[in-house]
Amino acid sequence: MFKPTSALFSGLLWKTPWRISQPQKARQRKRLRSVDRVVDTLSAALQRNGQSTKAVERWYAEMPREEEMVPKDKYTIFDKKEKTYRKGIHKLPKWTRVSQRVNPPGF
Amino acid sequence: MAFFRITLLRSAIGLPRRTTDVLKALGLKKRMATVFHPVSQSVAGQVMKVKELVDVQEVDRRLTKQEVHLERKPDPGYYVEKRGNAEFVEQTRE
């Protein structure tokens, strides 16, 4: 019955898989698109009022849209400690609720 | 006058305290709660702080709490032809 695994032998050991799964990737794309949609709605509504906001303008200036992003940036994130300078985005704390779209140029 | 219809889809548990404070300022206390705010720069800025957690639509007017509830209410599968009281009144008239 008892299977000696490292998770059972040591106190606190959480294992995050190295790879991100296909459904996780699909949901990640869905979340990226939903954030794009929220920003578009805000921008369109403000424009109809003849207004604009710094936060929205900054988002458009700095952040790529979901369809403009390369898969590398959608599913991985820069990490200086990794040999390839990249790790899965699911290693990022609270990764389903933060906007992490740009990485250092050249990496 | 246009309004933002803001619905909280994802909880802010475990996120920075400021995120929860922004949600509270918008009047969103629990998931699936819906609030209406006039289209303005300040509201847009607040929504930008929590854009990963909410769904936003632009609508023409504020809906009441009951109207929002009725949108989500499923079809009961029947309709009322006549109330019992109305039938009784008809029968006593004859």
From TrEMBL, chain A:
This is Large ribosomal subunit protein mL60. The keyword Mitochondrion applies. GO terms for biological process: mitochondrial translation. It comes from the Eukaryota. GO terms for molecular function: structural constituent of ribosome. One of its GO terms (cellular component) is mitochondrial large ribosomal subunit. Component of the mitochondrial large ribosomal subunit. It is found in: Mitochondrion. Keywords: Mitochondrion, Ribonucleoprotein, Ribosomal protein. Signal peptide: none annotated. It comes from Aspergillus cristatus (Chinese Fuzhuan brick tea-fermentation fungus). The keyword Aminoacyl-tRNA synthetase does not apply. InterPro entries: Ribosomal_mL60.
UniProtKB/TrEMBL annotation, chain B:
GO terms for cellular component: large ribosomal subunit; mitochondrion. One of its GO terms (biological process) is translation. It holds the Pfam family Ribosomal_L30. The keyword Phosphoprotein does not apply. The keyword Cytoplasm does not apply. It is found in: Mitochondrion. Residues 4-54 form the Large ribosomal subunit protein uL30-like ferredoxin-like fold domain. InterPro entries: Ribo_uL30_ferredoxin-like_sf, Ribosomal_uL30_bac-type, Ribosomal_uL30_ferredoxin-like. Keywords: Mitochondrion, Ribonucleoprotein, Ribosomal protein. Residues 74-94 are annotated as: Disordered. GO terms for molecular function: structural constituent of ribosome. It comes from the Eukaryota. Component of the mitochondrial ribosome (mitoribosome), a dedicated translation machinery responsible for the synthesis of mitochondrial genome-encoded proteins, including at least some of the essential transmembrane subunits of the mitochondrial respiratory chain. The mitoribosomes are attached to the mitochondrial inner membrane and translation products are cotranslationally integrated into the membrane. PANTHER family: LARGE RIBOSOMAL SUBUNIT PROTEIN UL30M, MITOCHONDRIAL RIBOSOMAL PROTEIN L30. Belongs to the universal ribosomal protein uL30 family. This is Large ribosomal subunit protein uL30m. It comes from Aspergillus cristatus. The lineage of its organism: Eukaryota, Fungi, Dikarya, Ascomycota, Pezizomycotina.
